Here is the input.
Amino acid sequence: MDDKKVTDHIDRLAREEHELFEREASGMASDADKEKLKRIQDTLDQCWDLLRQRRAKREFGQDPEEARVRDPKTIKGYLG
Here is the structure.
């Protein structure tokens, strides 16, 4: 997946995340909406991580295609 595809996917997920945040803020979010929001947030973390990996590999003369999606647990360890 190239950088453009990753950023396009991030944009789509961010729009959906925003809609779910609005539902939650208005008290209209179902349990399914809350679960979907968590999945979207995990996927967004993975996408941002992948994009950072790709950019770092490119910056250091490596092949960005070698970057791989990491599991959410690994990423959460880096984020917090």
Observations:
- The two ends are 26 Å apart (CA to CA).
- The first helix runs from residue 3 to 25.
